[in-house]
TrEMBL record:
Organism lineage: Eukaryota, Metazoa, Ecdysozoa, Arthropoda, Hexapoda
Protein name as catalogued: Ero1-like protein
Binding-site positions, FAD: R207, T209, W220, S262, H265, R303
One of the GO BP terms on file: protein folding in endoplasmic reticulum
Superkingdom of origin: Eukaryota
Compositionally biased region (Basic and acidic residues): 133-142
Length: 504
């Protein structure tokens, strides 16, 4: 009898255990399905990197050729010019979302700032461009002068106009301007902050500094989970990204937002893999006192191989091409405006070369047949207008999150590329840029002396440098493709020992 009772109790326990197990499987089934991966393949990253990108009419192969042959050499040469190499940024801002508890102490995380006096053209005051309404050269030219004494009808008292404005009124007007700018800007510009400093980008190249771990992961987790649009609640914590299969459940605007952020993230990861710290200076005969930097194939596979990314790696690479198209479209849309900039540094010869280089590259961009089409977005009355506001506020939050990065060099390039993308979004979706062609009748207006400027100098510097980073990432992908193919071919060749064994 006791034996029967024991067997019955054992069966009951088994039934309860099975039901409990089924409940757990059902609860985490989605996550379990996500983690099923295939073994790593050296070419898997590129097997699906072909054909249409989706959400636009272009394909990967067309962009590869266009960028690597036509754009890459032009944009890389352009951003080495003095106007684009000096970026003003505030790296001392406190993180507005959480306590910054893990500052990077590695020497590779530090940056080299430069004094404002060493920046070409600073001594001539181009920094205060928005406060000057006309060029001094025009103001004091002979054609601009008139002799009022020769006019017999001239009465100075009748022509008097009181243009004084009190300090309080000037302060209020400044607040109005800040409010109006906030309605159009997708990023918080901190170049006017007291703590903002100039950085020579050529002396502080973007590369892997060793900054990683929970602090770095928290940055991107916060961006994806809290500031990217999602089709549904995230069922898994360890994988914060939106699955490509779920993107179809989102509207075009939300899909574009996610893919743009994902593309920027992909680009940054490629930079870190292509400029990886291979060895540090340990002896006097080291290759360089700064260490040896170069491509790390294993790191690239860890970040993008389908078996390491739950199948999403190739889709992330496609998002790089997507954001490249988006930023290139912004350059084309703002092209008539950008071609009128003076790009002033005080060096007349280099300034002219910069303007010629800009005109040449924009001409190539105009010729591209499949630009991103922003006109299909935010159409639909008040609901679309509300979504546009939400779209902008989400991206402004991402720009604030960049102040939480614990590595100064990572923060520098994160803020620059975020501001570059934000400037592109401003051009594409701000009402000020709906008809840039209307400016075509204007003569060249120096950026220092425009009364109706649309972009600040820092925004222009960020826009071109961010696009240069995307262009470089696509070029680096070609190098990784070649290295992985060579690696696979070498692994398939029989070794000398193997050949000898086979002949026995």
């Amino acid at each position: 009898m006791a034996t029967a009772d024991t067997e019955m109790a054992h069966r009951n326990y088994c039934v309860v255990f099975i039901i409990f197990a089924l409940a757990i499987v059902q609860a985490v089934g989605y996550d379990t399905e996500l983690y099923e991966t295939k073994p790593c393949d050296s070419n898997a990253c590129f097997d699906k990197l072909h054909g249409s990108l989706g959400d636009c009419s272009c394909n990967v192969d067309t962009i590869d050729y266009f960028n690597n042959v036509k754009i890459y050499p032009r944009i890389q040469s352009l951003v080495r010019k003095d106007y684009f190499r000096f970026y003003k940024v505030n790296l001392k801002k406190e993180c507005p979302f959480w306590a910054d508890d893990s500052r990077c102490a590695m020497r590779y995380c530090h940056i080299k700032t430069c004094s404002k006096e060493s920046v070409p053209g600073y001594e001539n005051g181009y920094e205060n461009e928005e406060h000057i309404d006309e060029s001094p050269a025009t103001k004091y030219s002979k054609e601009s002068q008139s002799n009022c004494d020769s006019d017999t009808d001239h009465d100075p008292d009748l022509g008097y106009l009181n243009m004084t404005i009190s300090a309080a009124s000037q302060h209020e007007i400044a607040k109005w301007k800040a409010h109006d700018d906030a309605l159009e800007n997708f990023c918080e510009c901190d170049d006017k902050d007291v703590d903002a400093e100039y950085v020579d980008l050529l002396l502080n190249p973007e590369r892997f500094t060793g900054y990683k771990g929970p602090s770095a992961n928290r940055i991107w987790r916060s961006i994806y989970q809290e500031n990217c649009f999602r089709p549904k609640a995230n069922p898994y914590v360890s994988f914060p990204f939106v699955l490509t299969s779920d993107l179809s459940n989102m509207c075009l605007e939300k899909r574009v937002f996610y893919r743009a952020v994902s593309g920027m993230h992909t680009s940054i990861n490629i930079h870190l893999c292509s400029k990886y710290l291979l060895s540090e200076k340990t002896a006097a005969f080291a290759t360089s006192p700064e260490g040896e930097w170069g491509p790390n194939i294993e790191e690239f596979q860890n970040r993008f191989d389908p078996s390491q990314t739950f199948g999403e790696g190739p889709n992330w690479l496609k998002n790089l091409y997507f954001v490249y198209l988006l930023e290139m479209r912004a350059l084309a849309k703002a092209g008539p405006y950008l071609e009128k900039e003076e790009y002033y540094t005080g060096n007349a010869v280099e300034d002219e070369e910069t303007r010629d280089a800009i005109s040449n590259m924009l001409g190539v961009i105009y010729s591209f047949p499949d630009h991103f089409n922003e006109s299909s977005m935010f159409n639909g009355g008040s609901q679309a207008a509300d979504l546009k506001v939400e779209f902008r506020e989400h991206f402004r939050n991402i720009s604030r999150i960049m102040d939480c990065v614990g590595c100064d060099k990572c923060k520098l390039w994160g803020k620059l590329q975020t501001q570059g993308l934000g400037t592109a979004l401003k051009i594409l979706f701000s009402n000020k840029w709906n008809s840039p062609e209307s400016d075509l009748h204007l003569t060249k207006l120096p950026v220092r002396h425009k009364s109706h400027e649309r972009l600040q100098r820092t925004e222009i510097v960020a826009l071109f440098n961010a696009f240069a980073r995307l262009s470089d990432s696509i070029r680096q992908l070609e190098y990784f493709r070649i290295m992985l193919s060579t690696q696979k071919e070498d692994s398939q060749k029989p070794s000398l020992f193997g050949s000898f064994q086979d002949t026995k």
